[in-house]
Write a structure and sequence with these properties.
RNA_pol_sigma_r3/r4-like, transcription regulation, DNA binding
Length: 183
C-alpha cells in the first residue's frame, strides 16, 4: 500500500483531486483517532479531521517530495487539535463515544458498563493534560509511533518528546491514584 500512497501523493501534489480523495479515504480513521485522542469529543474530532484535510489539500503542493506524507498530515492534525483545545478552554469536557457499543458485543452488560466507566474516567483524566502532552501521549500509546517518529512529526527535539510523555504518564498515574479508579 505504501507504493499506492506515494503515487497518490505525487498526483495530489500536481493538483489531482481524485488522488487526494484517496489519501483522505486512506488516512481518515487515523487522523480522526489522533484528533479524538487530543480533544476527547467525537464531534470536535470530526471537525478537526476535516480541517486537517482541507489544510493539507491547500498546502500539498508545498510538501517536499522526500517528506513523509503521513508524518506531515499528523503534524497538521496535532497542531489543529492543540489550537482547538487552546481555544476551547471555556468549554466543558464531556466524553462522548457513540461507537463504544460496537466494542462490547458479546460481553455482559455489567462488564461493558465497567469498561465504559473506566474509559470515560481515563478520557476525563486525559482531558486535564495540556494539549502538547496529550498529543505526544496519543501518538505514542494510540498510534504506536516511536519517539523519534513523534519528534520528526512534531518538529520538536527527541528529549522534549520523552519529557512530555514522561510528564503525561506521571500526571495520569497520580490522577488515577487520587481518584481511586480501577482501570
Amino acid at each position: 500500500m505504501d507504493k499506492d500512497v506515494k503515487a497518490w501523493v505525487s498526483k495530489a501534489r500536481s493538483g489531482d483531486k481524485a488522488a487526494f480523495g484517496k489519501l483522505v479515504e486512506f488516512y481518515r480513521g487515523r487522523i480522526f483517532a489522533v484528533a479524538y485522542g487530543i480533544v476527547g469529543r467525537r464531534e470536535d474530532a470530526e471537525d478537526i479531521a476535516q480541517d486537517t484535510f482541507i489544510k493539507a489539500f491547500k498546502a500539498i503542493s508545498a510538501l517536499k517530495a522526500e517528506e513523509a506524507f503521513y508524518g506531515w498530515l499528523v503534524r497538521i492534525a496535532v497542531n489543529t487539535s492543540i489550537n482547538y483545545k487552546k481555544g476551547a478552554k471555556d468549554k466543558q469536557f464531556v466524553p462522548i463515544d457513540d461507537a463504544a457499543e460496537l466494542f462490547y458485543q458479546g460481553e455482559t452488560p455489567e462488564t461493558a458498563a465497567e469498561k465504559r466507566e473506566g474509559e470515560a474516567m481515563m478520557a476525563k483524566l486525559l482531558a486535564e493534560l495540556p494539549p502538547e502532552h496529550r498529543a505526544v501521549l496519543v501518538l505514542r500509546e494510540i498510534e504506536g509511533l516511536a519517539y523519534d517518529e513523534i519528534a520528526a512529526m512534531l518538529d520538536i527535539p527527541l528529549g522534549t518528546v520523552k519529557s512530555r510523555i514522561n510528564h503525561a504518564r506521571d500526571k495520569l498515574r497520580r490522577a488515577v491514584q487520587k481518584s481511586e479508579v480501577v482501570l
